[in-house]
């Protein structure tokens, strides 16, 4: 294998100064997400979600951002999955976006709450039928006993819902992450990156520049 300690990237695609920043971090985020989509970043909505278990152990995985509004970042998953159980016992989570094509990172910290049943229903309805069936067939994060098990389960639910709309399973739905801190990072030459932190103070956001 190549000596990975020699892998080194110079970042020079952009810069972020205090005059470039929007007052509200949601506006700043939407502007960067929009640029990530326009620049054809491979998975612009993919974000790392970190949760902490009841006994204080962190774990991370990628999920897809499905909505950002003026107060939360929303995603969908199985409520009984490992992450779902973690969030039941500890509502504090972190999100991380990395857009390598733009040399940008966004870090988000906050509290999650479940979306309402009607919000989850409405997103579930918009998914392709195959994904809806997949939500019924997969007990996410549980052990699968052999290579055929999932295929068999999928066929069973396909049959069960034949000729009918697939309704949302009660154990599947959305979460909204309400942030208390959001940080924007733009890679710069010589590791002199730009970092700006927004911290929620009552109803406004305190912006500070951080050393890279
Ligand atoms: C690009 C990508 C997108 C993903 N999107 C989702 C998603 O939106 N929701 C989800 O539950 N899992 C998603 N996954 C799968 C999760 O990363 C993870 O494997 C799964 O949710 C089980 O995690 P857990 O056992 O920690 O709960 C995605 C994985 C990748 C690589």
Overview of the structural elements:
With 212 residues, the chain is of the alpha+beta class. The protein has one domain: Pnp Oxidase, Chain A (Roll), CATH 2.30.110.10. The protein has five helices and nine strands, in the order αββββαββαααβββ. Strands 1, 2, 3, 4, 5, 6, 7, 8 and 9 form a nine-stranded antiparallel sheet that branches. Helix 4 (129-137) packs across helix 5 (149-160). The protein is globular and about 55 Å long. The two termini are 30 Å apart. The mean pLDDT is 97. The structure holds flavin mononucleotide.
Short characterization:
Strands 1, 2, 3, 4, 5, 6, 7, 8 and 9 form a 9-stranded antiparallel sheet that branches. With 212 residues, the protein is α+β, with helices and mostly antiparallel strands.
The molecules bound to the chains, other than polymers, are: flavin mononucleotide
Look at the structure and give the mean pLDDT: 97
How many structural domains are formed by the residues? 1
What is the general shape? Answer: globular
First-last Cα distance:
30 Å
- Helix tally equals 5
CA gyration radius, whole angstroms: 20 Å
N to C succession of SSEs: HEEEEHEEHHHEEE
Q: In terms of topology, how is this protein built?
A:
Blueprint lengths: L24 H14 L7 E7 L5 E7 L2 E2 L4 E6 L3 H8 L2 E8 L4 E11 L2 H10 L2 H9 L11 H12 L11 E15 L7 E8 L2 E7 L2
Antiparallel strand pairs: 1-2, 1-5, 3-4, 4-7, 5-6, 6-7, 7-8, 8-9
Helix pairs in contact: 4-5
Bound molecules: flavin mononucleotide.
């Amino acid at each position: 294998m190549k000596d990975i300690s020699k892998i080194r990237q110079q970042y020079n695609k952009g810069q972020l100064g205090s005059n470039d920043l929007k007052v509200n971090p949601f506006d700043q985020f939407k502007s960067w997400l929009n640029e990530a989509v326009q620049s054809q970043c491979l998975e612009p909505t993919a974000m790392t979600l970190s949760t902490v278990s009841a006994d204080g152990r962190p774990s991370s995985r990628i999920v897809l951002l499905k909505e950002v509004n003026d107060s939360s970042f929303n995603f969908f998953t199985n409520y009984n999955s490992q992450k779902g159980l973690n969030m039941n016992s500890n509502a504090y989570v972190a999100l991380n976006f990395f857009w390598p094509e733009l040399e940008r990172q966004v870090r988000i910290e906050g509290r999650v709450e479940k979306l309402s049943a009607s919000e989850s229903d409405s997103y579930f309805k918009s998914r392709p039928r195959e994904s809806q069936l997949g939500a019924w067939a997969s007990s996410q994060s549980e052990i699968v006993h052999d290579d055929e098990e999932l295929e068999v389960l999928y066929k069973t639910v396909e049959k069960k819902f034949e000729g009918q709309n697939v309704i949302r399973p009660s154990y599947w739905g959305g979460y909204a992450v309400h942030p208390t801190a959001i940080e924007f990072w733009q890679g710069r030459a010589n590791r002199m990156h730009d970092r700006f932190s927004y911290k929620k103070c009552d109803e406004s956001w305190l912006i500070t520049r951080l050393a890279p």
